[in-house]
Q: What sequence folds into this?
């Protein structure tokens, strides 16, 4: 069983593409080999800045011979049909076999495809995949038309078996395969021949190339942490950076250097970001002080001076970069100390947020108003929430965030403290963007929660107001993420709030913002906005003031905001969809959520989630599942009977007409359940309510087992139907169980 | 192989060594283009010559202007007027990376002591309608050059592909010479009878142009000139290919491109004066790109652009 080794040697492959490229190489080549009949035992792929390598072990030396049987025309078919068949199958008439079939005698052909040597197959598969490799971006070079991520220089392709090594011949636009590999660009600029994967990996190492990216990353991390440890320091972990740096070097050499004393007072996040973004340095922290005191850089070579020149150069570049950062930091602090954080926020009035949604400044005042409205709901002080919202985005006009956009919020917190604002406000500056990703921490401090909710709700309602919603995979304003953020904020903080009211308020605020200032409708819209605060929703608010309006004004309001109720409903259903995705990941089925969405207050996300998780928990029990069956059975019988009789069986059943023990037992069980469910529901204790409901199961099951509902005696029948009606009512009081799929 | 290991002593020595080096590698050493440009790429020796199939190899210094980067000569690294060293070879030779590394050795960077890295950096010029793939080259963490394989210029596929090298001369020289502030850098030999620093040559002009670019340039005049250059560019290109006087086929691709360069620089000045809003900005860039594209379309119809009468038939 031979082993295959392929190396594609090129100019420097971008670090971010290497991992995916080695995985693609492995999959595409091995799939191609298997498809051609060449199975193998194992395969591994590797990448360095200059090479992609694939090792396939235990490959078949040739593909197996295959025999295919093909059915032809009947013996009495016209000659032409037979000729066509022979041509297609590539056999002669003498090779055919005649068999008796039901419809008469039929020709059969056996087509034998002889196996092919591995090298032939490999050559084809490799060429095809080099020509069509799925690089995220590829290019041409010189006069050729071949595309690769950067110029491709050489292809190593060998099959090694016990009896020797052969070069698999490949020629792709003049690049011919061989058995030579190259050493490190600077430390060992030589070529050498290899005869197996082990030989290849060993010779590479001898020539200063570590083939395996995981080994390079391990080496870097191990060396960096050791050097830091020796000085009582620790390296700040950053897996993404580690992978990137491992993709920039073939022979990693870890060097630790000092950050100039002038820069140690900069916030650690600034040091870390500047060093990482510009220079791909790791930060080294003093665990006692929490300060970042040194950096680690990874060079691609050893030098006679043990890296002294390299380190000095890097240090110099770092100083230049940090001088810039320090300059920004000092300027920003001067601004906030002299003029306050709101002054820093002022230029945002001239920054466009979105051409249809006005400036950042206008957006901030909307968020501030909304944060104040939300404050009592989340337990925050309204004044503090307003202030926090007003300054939360001030750092967007700081020099530091202009240079490092990823520091937004983090700088805001520092600047808020420098401006003498409270910790709650400062934290809100940092935390109001959260949660961003699905695994981000959710803010829990009340002021932060109110601003975070207001920020996201304003964004969502804004894009709904101008009808720019996410479609398919397109979500340029990350609205799905914003909605999920709201959902997680509400659930985590157990916030009880009717979202629709806030949707209406904010949608209307956007309508007011975009309405023509000279248009008289603005005042009316503003009046409605105040009414929403009193009456809850847009419709009711419009009604409340409509008798004050003449017909023209009503028309004007409808023209300006007539689509508001449908936009609001649509946004709520968008939230429900996000919630389904979110709860599905937590093991709650979509039909369970549908059953809960049909209940009142479905715009109260926290309530909805409580109901849904309780229902799911009940369905996860045997009693629960069976009760649903019982409910469905009761519901089916009722639906049929109600359709037939044209009445609704919802009047109280009477125990005096109960004939059997099972019937009586069911009465008792329903009474017991109701006694528990009503107070539990009043307390919104869905878990207890559901548990009480599930307890009805034995009685319901026994009833259906023993009792025939459609009795001959009409009084008994009606009574039984009404009894089923009670089961239905009880069950539907908890959730719309008709939506549950069996 | 004899390597130059001794260190250069001045800014101009670095330029001279680059000239000598690339001349020895077969490049035509050109002189700067006599117009205001934002980067060495704008020189027609790069923009236009990267188009078409005719082989090309050129190296030159190009004074470049970025009005928004003016700092009155006070920032140690930022200048509104600076020098770029530019090399363009078409088709890109297979050993272009090695040739480039040779140029670093020529200016005194010992690759056995330094850490040279090719870090992904794709190039795109929205005003030229051009893009390419390549790297920024790092020397000990410092970006010293841009290295690009041109894929498209003026909306045309580059066939064959040109390899382009751009050295930011001041930054590179400061690194090689160990200077912290650009104005302190020796321009000529520090032991010359009249030793001049970069500041002696350029400090005053940086001040003058910073004031001009930010506060004094007459924006109305600039706007009018932009329109005029744009109109002139289109007008030149709309002339028939055959010259009525000589009877020869003479397409005025270069004179038209001069107007495109002019429009581009005027746009940069307007941008520095802060009179172009975010939305207008895109529109101006689009207008310059349309000029660049029209010039590229015209150039490929010329002999230097690979046009032949036979091929056109």
A:
């Amino acid at each position: 069983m031979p082993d295959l080794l392929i190396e594609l040697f090129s100019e420097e492959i971008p670090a971010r593409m290497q991992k995916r490229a080695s995985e693609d190489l492995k999959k595409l080549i091995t799939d191609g080999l298997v498809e051609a009949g060449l199975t193998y035992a194992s395969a591994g792929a590797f990448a360095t800045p200059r090479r992609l390598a694939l090792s396939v072990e235990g490959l078949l030396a040739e593909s197996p011979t295959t025999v295919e049987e093909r059915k032809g025309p009947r013996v009495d078919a016209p000659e032409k049909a037979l000729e066509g068949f022979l041509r297609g199958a590539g056999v002669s008439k003498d090779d055919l076999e005649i068999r008796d079939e039901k419809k008469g005698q039929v020709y059969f052909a056996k087509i034998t495809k002889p196996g092919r040597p591995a090298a032939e197959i490999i050559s084809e598969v490799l060429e095809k995949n080099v020509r069509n490799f799925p690089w995220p971006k590829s290019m041409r070079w010189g006069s050729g038309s071949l595309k690769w991520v950067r110029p491709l220089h050489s292809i190593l392709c060998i099959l090694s078996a016990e009896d020797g090594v052969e070069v698999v011949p490949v020629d792709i636009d003049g690049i011919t395969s061989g058995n030579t590999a190259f050493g490190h660009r600077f430390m060992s600029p030589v070529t050498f021949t290899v005869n197996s994967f082990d030989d290849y990996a060993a010779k590479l190492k001898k020539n200063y190339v570590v083939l395996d990216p995981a080994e390079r990353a391990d080496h870097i991390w191990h060396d960096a942490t050791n050097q830091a440890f020796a000085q009582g320091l620790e390296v700040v972990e950053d897996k993404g950076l580690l992978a990137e740096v491992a993709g920039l070097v073939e022979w990693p050499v870890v060097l630790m250097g000092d950050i100039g004393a002038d820069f140690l007072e900069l916030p650690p996040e600034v040091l870390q970001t500047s060093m990482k973004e510009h220079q791909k340095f790791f930060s080294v922290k003093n665990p006692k002080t929490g300060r970042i005191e040194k950096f680690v850089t990874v060079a691609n070579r050893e030098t006679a001076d043990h890296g002294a020149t390299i380190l000095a150069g890097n240090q110099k570049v770092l100083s230049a970069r940090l001088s810039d950062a320090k300059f920004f930091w000092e300027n920003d602090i001067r601004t906030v100390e002299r003029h306050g954080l709101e002054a820093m926020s002022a230029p945002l009035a001239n920054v466009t947020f979105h051409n249809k949604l006005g400036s950042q400044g206008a957006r901030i005042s909307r968020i501030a108003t909304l944060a104040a409205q939300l404050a009592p709901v989340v337990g925050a002080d309204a004044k503090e929430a307003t202030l926090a919202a007003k300054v939360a985005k001030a750092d967007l006009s700081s020099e530091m965030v202009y240079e490092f956009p990823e520091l937004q919020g983090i700088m805001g917190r520092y600047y808020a403290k420098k401006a003498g604002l409270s910790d709650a406000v400062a934290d809100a500056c940092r935390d109001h963007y959260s949660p961003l990703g699905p695994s981000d921490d959710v803010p829990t401090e009340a002021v932060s929660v109110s601003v975070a909710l207001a920020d996201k709700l304003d964004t969502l309602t804004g894009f709904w107001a101008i009808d720019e919603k996410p479609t398919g995979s397109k979500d340029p304003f990350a609205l799905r993420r914003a909605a999920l953020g709201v959902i997680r904020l509400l659930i985590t903080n157990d916030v009880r709030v009717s979202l629709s009211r806030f949707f209406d308020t904010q949608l209307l605020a956007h309508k007011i913002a975009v309405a023509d200032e000279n248009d008289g409708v603005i005042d009316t819209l503003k009046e409605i906005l105040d009414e929403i605060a009193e009456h809850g929703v847009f419709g009711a608010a419009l009604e409340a003031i409509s008798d004050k309006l003449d017909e023209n004004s009503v028309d004007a309001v409808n023209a300006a905001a007539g689509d508001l109720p449908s936009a609001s409903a649509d946004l709520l259903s968008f939230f429900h969809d996000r919630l389904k995705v979110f709860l599905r990941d937590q093991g709650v089925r979509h039909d369970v959520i549908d059953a809960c969405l049909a209940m009142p207050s479905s715009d109260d996300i926290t309530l909805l989630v409580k109901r849904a998780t309780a229902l799911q928990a009940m369905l996860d029990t045997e009693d629960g599942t069976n009760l649903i069956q019982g409910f469905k059975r009761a519901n089916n019988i009722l639906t049929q009977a109600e359709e037939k009789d044209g009445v609704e069986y919802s009047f109280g059943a009477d125990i005096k007409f109960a004939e059997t023990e099972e019937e009586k037992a069911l009465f008792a069980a329903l009474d017991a359940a109701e006694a528990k469910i009503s107070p539990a529901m009043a307390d919104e204790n869905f878990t207890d309510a559901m548990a009480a409901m599930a307890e009805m199961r034995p009685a319901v099951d026994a009833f259906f087992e023993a009792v025939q509902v459609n009795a001959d005696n009409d009084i008994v029948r009606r009574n039984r139907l009404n009894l089923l009606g009670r089961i239905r009512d009880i069950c539907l009081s908890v959730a719309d169980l008709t939506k549950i799929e069996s | 192989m004899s390597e130059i290991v001794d260190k250069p002593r001045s800014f101009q020595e670095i330029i001279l060594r680059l000239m000598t080096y690339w001349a020895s590698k077969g490049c035509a050493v050109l002189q700067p283009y006599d117009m205001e440009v934002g980067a060495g790429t704008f020189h027609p020796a790069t923009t236009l010559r990267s188009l078409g199939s005719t082989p090309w190899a050129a190296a030159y210094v190009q004074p470049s202007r970025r009005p928004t980067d003016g700092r009155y000569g006070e920032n140690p690294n930022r200048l509104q007027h600076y020098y770029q060293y530019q090399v363009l070879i078409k088709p890109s030779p297979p050993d272009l990376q090695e040739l480039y590394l040779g140029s670093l050795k020529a200016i005194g960077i010992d690759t056995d002591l330094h850490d040279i890295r090719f870090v992904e950096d794709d190039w795109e010029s929205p005003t030229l309608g051009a893009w390419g793939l390549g790297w920024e080259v790092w020397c000990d963490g410092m970006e010293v050059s841009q290295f690009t394989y041109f894929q498209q210029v003026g909306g045309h596929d580059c066939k064959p592909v040109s390899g382009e090298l751009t050295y930011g001369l001041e930054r590179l020289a400061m690194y090689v010479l160990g200077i912290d502030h650009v104005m302190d850098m020796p321009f000529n030999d520090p032991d010359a009878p009249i030793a001049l620093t970069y500041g002696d040559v350029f400090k005053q002009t940086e001040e003058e142009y910073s004031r001009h670019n930010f506060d004094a340039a007459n924006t109305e005049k600039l706007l009018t000139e932009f329109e005029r250059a744009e109109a002139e560019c289109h007008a030149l290109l709309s002339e028939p290919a055959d010259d009525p006087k000589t009877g020869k086929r003479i397409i005025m691709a270069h004179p038209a491109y001069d107007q495109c360069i002019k429009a581009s620089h005027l746009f940069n000045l307007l941008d520095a004066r802060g009179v172009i809003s975010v939305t207008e900005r895109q529109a101006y860039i689009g207008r310059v790109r349309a000029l660049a594209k029209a010039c590229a379309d015209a150039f490929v119809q010329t002999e230097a652009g690979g046009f032949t009468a036979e091929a056109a038939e």
Remarks:
- The radius of gyration of chain A is 37 Å.
- Residues 348-463+490-514+523-545 of chain A form a domain with the Hypothetical protein af1432 fold (CATH 1.10.3210).
- The mean pLDDT of chain A is 91.
- DSSP finds 28 helices and 18 strands in chain A.
